[in-house]
Amino acid sequence: MKKLALYVFIDAFGYEIYKQHPYFLKDIATDAKPLQSVLGFTNTCLPSILSGKYPQEHGQASLFYYSDHSPFKWMKVLSFLPSFFDRFRVRNILSRALKKAYGYTGYFQLYSIPFDKLGYFDFTEKRDYFVPGAPFDTIFDYCVQNSIPYHASDWREPEERNLQAVTESIEEGDTAFAWLYLPSLDGILHKYGTQSPKVEEKIRWLDREIRNVYDKARKKYDDVALYVFSDHGMEDVTEGYDLIADIDALGLEYGKDYIAMYDSSMARFWFKNNKAREMITRKLHEIDNGSILDEEELRRLKTFFEDGKFGDLFFMMNPGIMINPSYFGKDLIAGMHGYHPDTPSSKALLISNKKIGEEITSITDIRKTMEKELAQ
Ligand SMILES: [Zn+2]
């Protein structure tokens, strides 16, 4: 019997959003459930999905982390250039040039991290997650070790191209495991929010395209196990909060007293002295728009690092409140994720034409379903 395990990743297609679009793969998917996500953004969720491990186990808890050996130290000179060089387009070109110069094969973006702050950070996603040999064990390593023929999307390609590529691979009929990567719903949700007609339009398109791939697979294979899932959901943004201004107002010196990374829904701090630790902690306790994730909480979320690699202190904004401006963008946008994994909008989605076991409750459990399907 010829079998295909078809795994379709849709970025940010949270369980709450899915519930609003019940036509999605209706009559194909017989089982659907919410999955707990992990603390962080897509670059942390994807390793959790591919490895079946939590952030503190796979070590990709965030894109940027404080390092004395930053490859970006020289970029401080750019902060003295006219502000033209700080525009988004220029940063994009620069990101591409750096990616090439440093040989990074993973996703790399400078976002809005100020040039004079970049030199304090190193970067986790240096390797492509979708080819064997990532810094953590992935399902692709598993396929190689077990001689399972697989197909994986190229994350650099547009969705149309990845749909075409997976279809071609299915038509050849040699693949046992197919990984289809569809990331662009995320951008639409960020830009327009969860209730926009553009979201419905996109989900209807995804529905059509996935049905199409599934139908083709069923013609070629005796059994097709279809799993469609996401990494997290999306929260509609209600307001921005200028956390950077609050911290700057303390009069501490960035780099000498502390280092901070302002992700859009979370801030992380590294302290160089006790005074900075005390002043920043006190200030954060005064802010009603977010809360500190203490050690107990980080351990519960399996994102605790003894050496403070990803931060001595994590500050999480309340759902819907965006740090604005942040190091990931200067403008307030309609949707954001990366809030506490217990937030309803953070829940990821798993749907399948197969029965989803009771034990599958977190995005780190998706890997178990893959191995189970491939073992049969
Ligand atoms: Zn996103």
Automatic annotation (TrEMBL):
GO MF term list: hydrolase activity
Pfam families, alphabetized: Phosphodiest
Official protein name in the record: Alkaline phosphatase family protein
Species the sequence originates in: Sulfurovum indicum
